[in-house]
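Retro notes
What went well: the complex prediction finally ran end to end.
Inputs used:
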Amino acid sequence: MAKKFYVTTPIYYPNDIPHIGHAYTTIAADVLSRWHKLNGEKTRFLTGTDEHGKKIQSAAEKQGKTPKEFADELIPKFKDAWKKLNINYDRFIRTTDKEHEKVVQEVLKKVYDKGDIYLGKYEGYYCTACEAYYTEKDLENDCCPIHKTKIEKLKEPSYFFKLSKYQKKLLEFYKKNPEFISPDYRQKEIINRVKEGLNDLSISRTSFDWGIKLPFDKKHVCYVWFDALLNYYSGADGFWPADVHLVGKDILWFHSVIWPAMLLSAGIEPPKKVFAHGWWTFNGEKISKSRGNAINVDELISIAGVDALRYFLFRETPFGEDGDFSKKMLIERYNNELADKLGNLISRVAALAEKYELEKTENKLLKKLKLKEIEKHFEKIEIDRALNEIFAFIDNCNEYVQAKKPWETHYKKVLYELSDSIKAIAILLYPFIPSSSEKIAKQFGFEIGYKEIEKPLKENKIKRAEILFNKIK
RNA sequence: GACUGUAUAGCUUAGUGGUAAAGCACUGCUCUCAUAAGGCAGGGACCCCGAGUUCAAAUCUCGGUACAGUCACCA
């Protein structure tokens, strides 16, 4: 049986505009998914939208629409963005999908029957103008941060999940699965916080009704976490448990504490790994709505193309850490690495091969490619390091051209080795720059698949082609 | 404040008990197949400070300093 691989992104809030943050996680999932597909694994990649809740309901009311109609109109924005970014997901789940709602109710029932859900009172600072709850931290001198009006504590009946009951079990689980949370310093952070104690979690509301009804009390609507997190399970289609949940570091707590606790309660196997990545700043500044410096997907692509963007996001910064996005750095890497190193290598080899042709031989050059290292890096989701190794090999190839001077010697075997090496490079880079890799494959005459790396290239007639990465001045 | 972590060339980072690495940037040289690309060579680091362990510490321990992250109902 083929190995399986199941990767997810968070489900996004449809009222947002897809920006670099959404794009980053989603491209990362695509890179991982394409890598595992390349290896012939049974792979599933799930993304989607989180459509319930008060905010959507009131936004829809303002436009005189039902929440579902409202959400329906917003979904294409995300689907289009993913299409433009060449993202190849297997399923786009919506929390309004019937089948998802059914699963949420089933799991809620299980947890309730187990005695892990009880009726209590949710207490919070409620601003009537905002019609929203705030935490103590959000308040400014006991006033609403938006309306600057005095704010009052309000209580409403709410069902609670006994998260506190799972403190010990979670700590045991982390101990047994030291790779559950990545990067590992995040695991330490979480463990320390869990050791400090856990509060039970409010999981229902009565103040609005746009959500999934609790099966044991129809007056209550399920509030965010049970609903949203369960998408990974309801959308698994036989692939559960997930191999990796990719999340931003802001929502790690929910994925690494609440989520496994819910599953433990429901008697479902927890996921294998939750990976928290960092944030992008833009020209050194925090990206925020108030600054208005959130760059949308179209702008991101317009700088140097989709492949350049996909490449840059994982080349520039170790996956997991924060990075700084700037047009200048993107163009610099594009010019230096994709155009000058990779693009130029392909273009010079193709020109020489067209003139002097290839002759099959053992590709000794390929021995410099550290395939095993690259595999290990992907396994550990050290995507930047995988790229590092691949580009070190591209350098090896350029050095080789220089050393062997095929324009003088007309050595067909050297040109074969180089063409065969380009095959390996294009296949390995396919998860990052899929459409460029496909063009290279067509030009040099090979199939894209992991096994093809070690299969010798046929003695194809290679022709010069259009420049892959045009330099940007 | 509590907890955790980081501190290595101008920049971004790798590294690890035993002569300090890579990429970018910089300087010089050079080929001409190629996208004025490529190649070669070179300069540049008291590996944050102090103490300890050790034959040996950038690497381990302790203290200091600086910086960063996390501190729950925010997808």
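What we learned: Residues 181 and 187 of chain A are 5 Å apart (CA to CA).
What to try next: split runs per interface for comparison.
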